[in-house]
Specification:
The protein starts with 6 loop residues before the first strand and ends with a helix. Helix 3 packs parallel to helix 4, helix 4 runs parallel beside helix 5 and helix 5 packs across helix 9. Helix 2 links the parallel strand 2 and strand 3. It has a single domain, classed as NAD(P)-binding Rossmann-like Domain (Rossmann fold), CATH 3.40.50. Helix content is 43%, strand content 13%. By secondary structure, the protein is an alpha/beta fold. Strands 3-2-1-4-5-6-7-8 form an eight-stranded mixed beta sheet, sandwiched between helices.
Length: 277
């Protein structure tokens, strides 16, 4: 992909993998737009990306991914400013240890990790089609292997565990990728997802100290964790590849359920109902 002047929209870039990804892509010459929820953090990240990359073509825009209304307002504001998107990276993610409910009444992990990118992508799909060949990249996780989509308790009202909620949301990312790649196969828009590795970010900030100590030895830096996202954004050799799950810049087989298109269809239509589009 010829990077100069290409627009890359990335969520969750105020820290961790997202920030490292944004800095490297800005160095490559992309025009970066990233979302923030906290103004102070957004402004400081904006200056940091510009300073470290040497690229001043960077913009921060407000979007609270916990709120469907905020996502809709953001996409409307974005479409006023921009006519196309060359790369969309759905990077933002959370892992809560307790069950919280968003203002829309949805379990927070599922809402932020799945419903937010589902809605954001669908509302901006026209701009990605205009920029074709363009790319959508969804950050998933190997945690998808530890659970299933529980359609009888998808919001974890009957039974909550942090692993169930997180794993289910990451499995949803892959199912979303698979279904969307089929829908966009004739439009010149590729859709892929990835496991970044077990990265030293704020994802584990609410976990008990014992668990933090246990995983500390396998954590990699955000810069290393960003490598596959960067690869999927810039590599020419995967320009026609779509609907795949990547790890360490290579295609990797995801679990059986993530390849079940009946489940992907069911999740898609349920997600449409939740986000009201």
């Amino acid at each position: 992909m010829n990077k100069k002047g290409k627009l890359c929209l990335i969520t969750g870039a105020t820290n961790g993998i997202g920030k490292a990804t944004a800095i490297e892509l800005a160095k490559e010459g992309f025009h970066i737009v990233f979302t923030y929820r906290n103004l102070e953090k957004g402004e400081s990240t904006l200056e940091e990306i510009k300073m470290q990359s040497g690229n001043t073509s960077v913009e921060a825009m407000y979007c609270n991914l916990e709120s469907l209304d905020s996502i809709k307002q953001f996409t409307e504001a974005f479409k006023v400013k921009y006519e196309k998107i060359d790369v969309l990276i759905n990077n933002a993610g959370i892992w809560e240890t307790k069950r919280y409910v968003t203002e829309d009444g949805y379990e927070k992990t599922f809402a932020v990790n799945h419903l937010a990118p589902f809605l954001l992508t669908n509302l901006l799909i026209g701009l990605l089609k205009k920029a074709a060949p363009s790319r959508i990249i969804n950050v998933s996780s190997e945690a998808h292997r530890f659970t299933t989509i529980d359609f009888n308790d998808i919001m974890c009202e009957k039974s909550f565990s942090s692993m169930k909620a997180y794993g289910q949301s990451k499995l949803a990312n892959i199912l979303f990728t698979k279904e969307l790649s089929v829908q966009l196969k004739d439009y010149g828009v590729t859709v892929n997802c990835l496991h970044p590795g077990v990265v030293n970010t704020g994802l584990f900030q609410h976990f008990p100290s014992l668990i933090k100590n246990l995983i500390s030895g396998i954590l990699i830096s955000p810069e290393k964790g960003a490598q596959t996202s960067i690869y999927l954004t810039t590599s020419e050799e995967i320009s026609k590849v779509t609907g795949q799950y990547f790890s360490k810049k290579k295609i990797k087989a995801s679990n059986k359920e993530s390849n079940n298109m009946e489940i992907a269809h069911k999740l898609w239509y349920l997600s449409e109902k939740y986000v009201r589009i």
